Amino acid sequence: LTAMGEPNMDPTISAADSTAQQDSLFSMTDVFLISLITGLFTYWFFFRKKKEEVPDLPKMQTVAAPVRDSSFIEKMKKTGRNIVVFYGSQTGTAEEFANRLSKDAHRYGLRGMAADPEEYDLSDLSRLSEIDKSLAVFCMATYGEGDPTDNAQDFYDWLQEADADLSGLRFAVFGLGNKTYEHFNAMGKYVDKRLEELGAQRIFELGLGDDDGNLEEDFITWREQFWPAVCEHFGVEATGEESSIRQYELVVHTDVNMNKVYTGEMGRLKSYENQKPPFDAKNPFLAQVTENRKLNEGGERHLMHLELDISNSKIRYESGDHVAVYPANDSSLVNQIGEILGTDLDTVMSLNNLDEESNKKHPFPCPTSYRTALTYYLDITNPPRTNVLYELAQYATDAGEQERLRKMASSAAEGKALYLSWVVEARRNILAILQDMPSLRPPIDHLCELLPRLQARYYSIASSSKVHPNSIHICAVTVEYETKTGRLNKGVATNWLKSKVPEQNGSSPLVPMYVRKSQFRLPFKPSTPVIMIGPGTGVAPFIGFIQERAWLKQQGKEVGETVLYYGCRHEREDYLYREELARFQKEGVLTQLNVAFSRDQAEKVYVQHLLKKNKENIWKLVNEGMAHIYVCGDARNMARDVQNTFYEIVSEFGNMSQPQAVDYVKKLMTKGRYSLDVWS
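-> structure tokens emitted (680 positions)
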């Protein structure tokens, strides 16, 4: 019992001991409570903070986002410029002219800058008067059927919608066009007219350059009158400074990581090794060539059909679109330039813009080697323009050769005539000039700075995406001719494509390409009749059209009359797609096949002669059947002759005068019932 009697505690336990026990108990409780309160407060504090921060996140992201400075006014103020030269350029020529004009400005105590309208907010034009002696110049090319170039599309849209007051703006326009096209210099004319309508002051007349004639001479003639007008307007004089001014400085890389060197890519470094959609001009897709066959059975020319595999590229196209390919220059031409200039072409270098504020840091992707630049980035086969000759003249050690170069670059009538005969008509490229002027040995880096960029080549797609969703077909003829100097000149792209033949072992060559959308479209209703006129390789888009009409017919759709007028030189030599066309006719898809063999008889027969022969049927299809007319091929002769034939047919069967017939055909064009896909 004693063992069980712990409650009978020792009566000797003192009151002090009891108090100590109580103190210990309270301190433990305090610690617990304080910890609990601290924990709850901390949890509540952080929880509340999170709730408060959530609404602020978008604001923080907005502040952190990079803002692109799109004000050319601020840039001009910052860099002390007073002349801005905007360019609408598809092939680089308008950009080149803009650069030349902006460089000219220093000769008159002014400072210029060339600008891509796509990179700036053009509504700032109303603020240009904030800058003393300010002027806006526009070098505007016309693309296709009177359209703006890709980089000028936004500017064109803004001009159409703008109600801005441009009364303080002084301007001048030089247009680049081609007289063989229906809408000659439409963009230049529109910009000139519209700026005046918005209140801007024209300080010099509109210049109209014609690429079918001599575009370089047109530009020089306009420029030599433009600058005196600028001087008179602003009360300035030429400083007499005619010295060559380098735009880029050379940096040679002796110790460089080759993974950071461009090897032909158009935009992103290593983009050909690591392909990522979407694919466009700055990011082309490397398509495998799965087929490359000769189409003609005889003759001196080489006509070919190529098929490009676009599987897994996410590229979409429609019949009538264009495929652009980036070619490479002939390696033998590149090597010869290297040999003449005594250069190691594999030297890795960069050309860096001396104007640190410029958006254009390099003339082509850098760092790269001279070999890559001359092969993939620079145009070495076209005759160089006069500004290139002027800049190169200083390097000719022979006084006679130097004088000759300077004369050709001058605005004197004798100089223009010499340039026309010795360079343009003789088709002398830079290699030929170096060969024919032994004392002219410029530094290769300055030559690379001066040469224009090698441009993509466009071809009408010869297939339908309904039938060939993973393949794009090209029909082309190789260009090869002898010049007046006895040299054999070859077309860059067509000869390069000719060499792209798939190997027997299954390996396929690659072609950098992208698709450019077109307005050349089949009618919305398949039942609408179509009249297609396309001699030679102009038949290309119509192969796609007929494939699509055949596919629509297979889907059970009612397909209207499909009429083709095709032409070639000899039936037994260059009748392209003979078997395919015969099959389409047999299947009833191609309701009429009219072929003109121009040289199989004494008198030449062309497609327009066959149109006249069938004029009653043509008028019935157009007038009663509401047919759509499509013309593809040579703009200089064929397209014009075909159009004149339609004027005659409309005049005769529509009982109209010549002017009324012309107006009738023009209205067909406006309504999209007469479409052109032509080249010169």
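The first strand starts at residue 83 and ends at 88.
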